Each structure stands twice: as structure tokens, then as C-alpha cells.
Amino acid sequence: MKLRTSIFFTIVALAAMLALTACGSNNSKNNNSSPAASAPAASEGAEGGQTIEATIDASNWKFDVTEVKAKVGDTLKLTMKSSEGNHGILIEDLGGVKIKNGETVEIKLDKAGTFEYHCNIMCGQGHDNMTGNIIVE
Ligand SMILES: [Cu+2]
């Protein structure tokens, strides 16, 4: 009876020691792993950073909106509608963005300036009058 008990405790003690050393080696391995690089999130909302929504309605031969103002860092969500005739919008100075009737495009405004847009579909005698400006400050 006494012998059994002491063997039992010896086994328990050995098991505990094994467990401790196993834990110890695991911990040292974990400590060697390089820290996870946490890149800073894209800097949004600092200056500008808002979403500006504008709808430009085209008719023969004008755009109802000829000036859209925004700030550097804003995202311009531009929708084009054509209530009369067949028109489109081309913004050459902002990467040649094209917007068709009923379409919405999102443009990230990352530089200041005045960017002209104009109709890019030959729509008739007043075609050349169909211009406007996106002013980014
Ligand atoms: Cu046109």
C-alpha cells in the first residue's frame, strides 16, 4: 500500500517536471518569432477625405452643373444623366475618366487644380459649349 503510493507520487512528479520543461521550450521558441509588422492604416480623414457626390444632368447643349468643388484627398462620386440628347462626360486631366449616361464613377482627388470636363459625344451644333470644371483646392 505504502509502496504503491510513493510510486504514484513519483510518477506524478516526473510528469509535472516533463510538462514544465515542455512548456519552457515552447515559450523560448515563441519568443524568437519576429513581431508582426502592423502597417499604419491608409491616412483617411486627415485633410479632405470626404466623399463629394454630384450629379451632372446633360441636355442640348449644356450641363446643368458647370462647377464642382472639392478638396485634395476627397473622393468625387460623379453621376452623369442625360435628360435630353445623347451626351457623355470626359475628364482628360483626371486620368481620362469617361462617364456615360446613367453611370457613376468615383474619382480620388489627389492633386489640386482646375480640371475641365466636356461632352465626348458629338451631339450637334452646341457640342463645344458643353464644358464644366472640377475645382480641387
Ligand atoms: Cu456633345
Automatic annotation (TrEMBL):
Top-rank taxon, per record: Bacteria
Official protein name in the record: Cytochrome C oxidase subunit II
Residues making up the signal peptide according to the UniProt record: 1-24
Pfam families: Cupredoxin_1
Keyword Transport: no
Stretch list, region Disordered: 29-49
Keywords for this protein: Signal
Coiled coil: none
Keyword Calcium: no
Organism per entry: Cohnella endophytica
Low complexity bias spans: 29-45
Stored InterPro entries: Cupredoxin (IPR008972), EfeO_Cupredoxin (IPR028096)
UniProt domain EfeO-type cupredoxin-like: residue ranges: 31-136
